[in-house]
Amino acid sequence: xxxxxxxKGRIGSVASTEKVTSAMKMISSAKMHKSAQALxxxxxxxxxxxxxxxxxxxxxxxxxxxxxxxxxxxxxxxVTFGSDDGLCxxxxxxxxKNLLVQIKNVREQYGKGVKIIVYPIGGKVxxxxxxxKGVEVKEAPINTRSNREQLTEFxxxxxxxxxxxxxxxxxxxxxxxxxxxxxxxxxxQFLPVSNKDLMAKGSKKxxxxxxxxxxxANAIFGSVxxxxxxxxxxxxxxxxxxxxxxxxxxxxxxANDNANNLLEELQLDYNKMRQQSITTELLDxxxxxxxx
Length: 292
Prior knowledge:
Helix Hairpins, Pyruvate Kinase, Chain: A, domain 1, alpha/beta, 2 domains, 7 helices, 13% strand
């Protein structure tokens, strides 16, 4: 049975843990809001590009671009977004589990002979993916703290590999940010760009407008499509960052709640033991007086 001194030490330790988790929750919350604001700032640019492409596709022209070329998939790259740091609950575990499922689905869809290349982003995912058999793991030139220039270089690298037929398709596996308490895993096609994705967020009103394109619709399409690809990568990268911090906020909240519950139990045990000790001392005093 623990002594009063031991219980007091445990109470102090748990109280310190509660302060740490509370501080970490506040830091993660601030980072999450920063990423959420960055995501909001990206949306107008993305929506404008989407609107331009919707106008172009509504014109029923012939659009040729190697970035929309669909070919037999013999080599496919899967870019997996995770985290560099821990203390974010089952965030990375869920991503890796889903990656294994998607690898299985890719083999079923394209055949067992398809070559799968995985670009893991985030130290935690890099360690986990290294143990996956049957795939080629390549080091991504970015991490979860990379800036826009580094992200642009990585996107250009993927685009060049696709255009050079080094890979036939690129998929993105990431955590889609809904809110602090809700994030869902997404597995989206990145390259080649599909018409379905290009038209997905187009405005119905814009599709009914007749437009005159200068110099011509195909030239504009060829110029805007790389911007669209870059905006998609930026949006997904920011969503992944926001989701990571959201998962960390929830994990720290859970740890904080557990620490508070444990602190209450220890404090109750301490008070009971202290009261018992006082009662014992009083009985000893009374017993001594009776013997006299």
